Amino acid sequence: MKLQLNIFLIEERKDDMAVHASVNGTTAIPWRRGRRRLSLLENLRGCQDAWCPGAPWDREGAHAAIRGAPAGSFLVVRDSVTSRPCLLCVSAGDQHGEVLDYNMNCTGTAFQLAESRLSFSDLPQLVLFYSLTR
């Protein structure tokens, strides 16, 4: 399983002032050296509602949403009763639109794929690990 992480971060730059050059009429926004780039894990946490929606989806809905998407595209399905993550759906990206399912175990403090002994303290860490190692 290879998860594909396509995360786009748009930052609002209210504190940067545009500089207009009177000579050639160009406008530039100065680079602020104090800004730190967000890590991949921070980006995953920031957009978790997109790949693990709060409203419970069912397996079929998740499959329909990512069928035909590039290989590694994924969605996490929540249990309709507990609202805990229960299924990781990953697009195989083939011509048949196959979607692979990985059952998840979730306790209050640990997340893991059912067939794995590895556990993670939060869902973004699990997704990041499998996206970098598979």
3D architecture notes:
By secondary structure, the protein is of the alpha+beta class. Helix 1 crosses helix 4 (about 125-134). The protein contains four helices and six strands. The protein is globular, with a radius of gyration of 19 Å. The protein is about 20% helix and about 20% strand. Strand 3 (about 75-80) and strand 4 (about 85-90) form a beta hairpin. It starts with 18 loop residues before the first strand and ends with a helix.
> What would you say the CATH architecture is?
2-Layer Sandwich
Total helices: the number is 4
Major beta-sheet overview: 4 strands, antiparallel
Query: So what's the overall shape?
Result: globular
Provide the CATH top-level class. Answer: Alpha Beta
Count of extended strands: 6
| Distance separating the two termini | 5 Å
- CATH fold-level label: SHC Adaptor Protein
Strand arrangement, major sheet = 3-4-5-6
Radius of gyration: 19 Å
Q: How many structural units, i.e. domains?
A: 1
Taking pLDDT < 50 over at least 5 consecutive residues as the criterion, the unreliable ranges are 6-23
Structural class: alpha+beta
Helix content: 10-25%
Beta content comes to 15-25%
Protein name: SH2 domain-containing protein
Organism: Characodon lateralis
